[in-house]
Fold:
Amino acid sequence: MGAFNREEGVTASSRIYDTLRQELVNGRFAAGEKLAISSLKERYGVGLSPLREALNRLAAYGLLIQENQRGFRVPRLAREELDDIADMRRELECMALERAIERGDAEWESELLAAAHRLKRADETPEKVDEWEAMHTRFHRTLVAPCGSVWLLRFIEQLHDQFDRYRRLAPNVPEVRRVLDAQHGELVNLALDRQVQAARDLMDDHIQRSYEVALGSFS
Structure:
């Protein structure tokens, strides 16, 4: 019975972790907002123990700030932090993309084409924001997947979540969005053609344009 309860607790903690992670990235909670434990328990239908475990994990991940004896708070937005995140994305994603192009096999090429196709389909229904975000995340993960470093992929995933806190709060800029959407296809072509430097240059530009959109979160 004890083992069953522990397993059930781990499942609940993982569920609330995944849900809260998405809601924090999506801006469900305001920057700087203090999270009320009692409200979270009621909102997500979860016990105190798995909830606190999930909150501790999110604090370690950087999406929450743990305050001594005062619970958890959503990090505030800061221009200096966004600059740092964007710079690190350029460094790490360009490195990962170069390694992926050098190591990617035929199976990766097939998965990349499929991910690009799903993203392009999602581009046609921009009103379905959650679907587009999911396909966008899958595309970028697939693009660098064969880089050969689990830690590099973990750091990139964490940077994406932190970056998206800003990007998703920024106003939509349709003309930039069209360029970014087109660049996804260009990245695929360059990757499949094994044009490493051109792909790195385009990824750098892609992140820079996204960064310029994310700056709108301070408007």
